[in-house]
Write a structure and sequence with these properties.
Length: about 375
C-alpha cells in the first residue's frame, strides 16, 4: 500500500473530502467529485468507530427489560392450606375438633399383635373417660376396634387340613370370639346362640355346662367362662365400640387336629343404666376381660364331631371391674362406693399381655384389684 493513501484504496484524504463537501454546499464550480460509494465507506467507518467507543449502534435501540414481579410463593401456599382447612371444617367439623383435642382422637393406632409382648404397655396420663372418649387415659385408646384388633395369621396346611381348610377354621375361630364377646345382643344379656352353634355338640361336658349355666349360674357353670354379658337393667355400654387386642396362633394337636389358641383382651366402657343422658358427669367404668381359649378342629374320621365345629381343649380368663361375689351370669361393674370397696385381693395390671392368662386367679373369697383401668 502506498504511503499517504487510505485503506479503502482512494487517494483523497479526509481533509480534501471535507473541503469537497463545503465547496459543494457553497456551489464551487471546481469542487472535486467523489462517487457515492466513498460516502458510504466513510459513513460505515464512522459508525464502526462509534460502536467501538461503546456508544449505541446506529439505528439501534434496546428496550429496558421489564422487571418481573416478585413471586409470593409462601403466601400462596399459606392461602391454599387455609382454603383446604376451611373446606374440611365445612365437610367434617368433628374431625377438625379431633385435631386439637390432644386426647383419644389424637392417639396413633397400634399395629396388630403378632406375638406375645415382652413388657406391659407404658402408663398413660391420668384422664377421666367421657361419653365421647370412653377409652381416654388408657392403653386401649390406641387399640383397634372390635374384630379388627384380633390378628389372624396366614394359613398353611396342618395335620389333616389343607391350607384352604385351615384358613376357614381360623376365620370361624375368630367368628366365635366375635359372637361370644363382641356381639351387641350378647353383650346386652341375650343367649349367644351363634357362638354356641360353633361348639362341637358331641362334646358332652361342655354341652352340660351350657345347658345349666344360663339358668343356674355357679362357680363351675358360669356363662362368663366363655361369654361376655351385662344385665341391661343395671349396666349400659357407652358407645358402639369395644376395644380389643390379641391374636390367634395354631399348631398340630392330637390325632392330627388343628389346634387354635386365642388370647384376646376386651375393654368394655360402661355406665349405670339409671345414669342421666350418658353425659360427661356420669361415671364411666371400663370392664376389662382377657380370655385364652384353646380350640381343636378335629379330624371327623378320628373324633366324633360336626362339620364347622370345634371342641374346647381349655379356657381361662382374667377380669377386672367385672364384679365380685356370687356368680350371676353377668358382668357387674362396680360404681361409686362399690367401686372403691371392690378389689381386696391380688393386684393385677389388666393391660399387661406379657404374662400368661390366669396368673392371678383370685380365690372364692377375694377379688382381684386392677392397678389401672
Amino acid at each position: 500500500m502506498a504511503a499517504g493513501t487510505e485503506s479503502g484504496g482512494s487517494s483523497t484524504s479526509d481533509e480534501e473530502w471535507e473541503r469537497f463537501l463545503r465547496e459543494s454546499a457553497a456551489g464551487t464550480p471546481n469542487a472535486p467529485k467523489e462517487p457515492s460509494a466513498r460516502a458510504r465507506e466513510v459513513t460505515e467507518r464512522l459508525r464502526a468507530e462509534s460502536v467501538r467507543a461503546g456508544q449505541d449502534g446506529w439505528r439501534s435501540y434496546t428496550p429496558a427489560q421489564p422487571k418481573r414481579p416478585k413471586r409470593r410463593t409462601g403466601w400462596y401456599v399459606v392461602g391454599l392450606l387455609a382454603s383446604l382447612a376451611l373446606l374440611v371444617a365445612a365437610l367434617a367439623p368433628g374431625r377438625v375438633v379431633d385435631l386439637f383435642a390432644g386426647d383419644e382422637a389424637d392417639s396413633p393406632s397400634m399395629g396388630g399383635e403378632t406375638a406375645r409382648p415382652t413388657e406391659p404397655p407404658p402408663s398413660e396420663a391420668a384422664q377421666r373417660p367421657t361419653k365421647d372418649e370412653p377409652f381416654r387415659g388408657s392403653p386401649a385408646a390406641r387399640w383397634a376396634n372390635g374384630a379388627a384388633g384380633i390378628t389372624v395369621p396366614k394359613a398353611r396346611a396342618v395335620g389333616w387340613m389343607s391350607e384352604a381348610e385351615v384358613e376357614r377354621a381360623l376365620d370361624r375361630s375368630r367368628d366365635f370370639l366375635v359372637t361370644s364377646s363382641l356381639d351387641r345382643g350378647v353383650l346386652r344379656g341375650e343367649r349367644p346362640e351363634k357362638a354356641i352353634a360353633l361348639i362341637n355338640p358331641h362334646q358332652e361336658d361342655v354341652q352340660s355346662i351350657l345347658k345349666t349355666a344360663f339358668r343356674s349360674p355357679s362357680e363351675k357353670n358360669d356363662p362368663l367362662l366363655l361369654f361376655s354379658r351385662f344385665r341391661p337393667s343395671r349396666t349400659h355400654l357407652v358407645g358402639d365400640i369395644v376395644k380389643t387386642r390379641g391374636l390367634l396362633t395354631y399348631r398340630e394337636g392330637k390325632r392330627g387336629a388343628l389346634q387354635v389358641t386365642a388370647d384376646v383382651t376386651y375393654v368394655y366402657p360402661v355406665t349405670r343404666a339409671d345414669a342421666g343422658a350418658g353425659g360427661d358427669d356420669d361415671e364411666i367404668v371400663r370392664t376389662i376381660v382377657r380370655r385364652e381359649l384353646v380350640m381343636s378342629w378335629d379330624d371327623p374320621g378320628k373324633v366324633i364331631t360336626e362339620p364347622g365345629t370345634f371342641s374346647i381343649v381349655s379356657n381361662k380368663f382374667d377380669m377386672t371391674n367385672g364384679g365380685c361375689g356370687a356368680p350371676t351370669g353377668y358382668l357387674t361393674p362396680p360404681f361409686g362406693k362399690d367401686r372403691r370397696a371392690e378389689g381386696t385381693g391380688t393386684e393385677m395390671d389388666p393391660y399387661d399381655r406379657s404374662v400368661p392368662v390366669g396368673r392371678d386367679d383370685p380365690s372364692e373369697d377375694e377379688c382381684g384389684r386392677a392397678t389401672r383401668s
